[in-house]
Amino acid sequence: MFDPVAKLKEYVSHPSVSADPAFAEGMKGARELAGGLLREIGFAVDYVPTAGHPVIVAKRTGDPSWPHVIIYGHYDVQPPDPLELWTTPPFEPVERAGRLYGRGTADNKGPLMAHIAGVGRLLESDPQIPLRITFVIEGEEEIGSKHFKDFLRDHKDRLAGADFVFLSDTGIPNPDQMVITVGLRGMVCFEIELSNARTDLHSGMNGGVLLNPIQGLAELCASLHTPDGRVNIPGFYADVKEVEPWEREQLVKLGLKEKDYAEFLGIERFHTPPGYTPFEAIRFLPTLEFNGFGGGYQGEGTKTVIPSKARVKISCRLVPNQTPERMKEVIFKAIRERAPKGLKLKITDQHDAMPYVVVPPDRSNTPPDQSPVLARAFRATHQAATEIWGREPLYLREGGSVGLIADLKKELNLDAIMLGLFLPQDNLHAPDESFDLAVMHKGIETVQRILHRVARG
Q: Residue 161 and residue 228: Cα distance in Å, rounded?
């Protein structure tokens, strides 16, 4: 059996940035390393081409009556910029104080390595275990999984007969508390552009006689929220699913303190809609956020112009019962109605994702309609996590989005068990990303025990 820490270091050293064609060799190296490890533990591996980066499909077949689990991961990572803020180079992994530092250590190479190593140890200890396993490892998660839905539609036969999806691309609050993620927010992303004159104009010659696109855009953006933090768009909250009492109870068990969280974030106070704590709002409410705002001169010093254009990038997180199609309808309607007269409006629709929620057995007064294998897998997960982490896991929705989970539900009707393995301190998508190696080792053991119980009962 391979050394998972040594292999993780090698895996991270391949700069697999899917967003930038300059990293094509790094993408290939990461893909071949993951595929090679799966071959080493007995899987038949194929690299399935897409219109973008290939998907690794690795299979352990067996009797059709055996349970069949799909294990998902991704081999691509975020760009490492800004490079000057890294303590050590992002693709030269370094261990410090029980952590491995490098881009992709926590998202998603470390958690995926825990699954590969857990399966490897399971098969080493029980070579004849009655369990079918298919690894599906994509290379475009960090750019919106834009070809993954096509892959699912074109290759349903490769994934036929699966009972559930198993993955670790979600978080836990501390190294001693396992969280099983049972919900993810969806997403709508778009860009607004307001324009006026054909070109930038001299502010002294034209200032005060025409509407500056930056001013118009700022006024439009300001109209999209109320002072108390709610989104000010008719119908925005119309379809929001009511929070279950058991969900609030699970969140209380986390024992989170607003003051501690504010200090961790480095902020003075929260700006949360009335009736919700920050921890509830992150998980249970939809959002509309401005991700970037620009127009005119952005360099050093001054340049006295009235810009011809101004742009803002906006993302909305969606909650269960909301759909990207319906939300774009109500949001774009409000934007068109409020766009300042005299300015030309352009809305560029970008990527979106459906929200997702699954109700674990024994967590609701209304038992979910689930397959026996999925219910068994949830109970196996609860038992294994309790044994290894020293306390019962919590079942929480998460504020982030993993759109492919909803795609798997839509295309294959599969629910997911999402085992959290990264920590708030791991700096996902930021400089000095790292992964707690003690969490990794506990994750390996948890994966092994869960799959053993799914197979053996």
A: 49
SS3 103: coil
Q: Supply the pTM of this predicted model.
A: 0.88
Cis omega before residue 212 (within 30°)? no
Q: In what order do the strands lie in the sheet with 94-96?
A: 94-96, 99-101, 434-436
Separation between Cα atoms, residue 254 and residue 282, nearest integer Å? 14
* Range of the structural domain that residue 265 is part of: 243-285
Q: For residue range 119-132, what is the model confidence (pLDDT) as tens digits?
A: 999 999 999 999 99
Q: How many CB atoms lie within 10 A of CB 377?
A: 25
Instruction: Scan for tokens 């026996």, then name that residue.
Output: 372
Q: What is the pLDDT at residue 366?
A: 59
Task: Report the b/e string of 348-368 with b at 16+ CB within 10 A.
Answer: eeeebbbbbbbbbeebeeeee
Same domain, 150 and 281: no
Q: How far is CA 396 from CA 87, 183, 319, 364, in A?
A: 33, 7, 13, 13
- My answer on whether 45 and 84 are in the same domain is yes
The pLDDT of 298-313, averaged and rounded, is 94
Residue 346 structure tokens: 């352009």
* Count of structural domains, the chain: 3
Q: Does one domain contain both 171 and 72?
A: yes
Kindly state whether residues 8 and 140 are assigned to the same domain: yes
Could you tell me which of 9, 31, 22, 147 has the C-alpha nearest to residue 80?
A: 22
Q: What one-letter code names the amino acid at 73?
A: G
Nearest Cα residue to 296 out of 310, 278, 284: 310
- Domain CATH code at residue 296: 3.30.70.360
- Phi, psi of 52, deg, nearest 5: -120, -120
Output helix, strand, coil percentages for the chain, rounded to the nearest 5.
35, 25, 40
Q: What is the pLDDT of residues 409-433, one digit of tens each?
A: 989 999 999 999 999 999 999 999 9
d(CA 40, CA 35) in angstroms, rounded, equals: 9
Helix-helix angle 110-125:24-40, to 10 degrees: 20
More confident residue, 305 or 402: 305
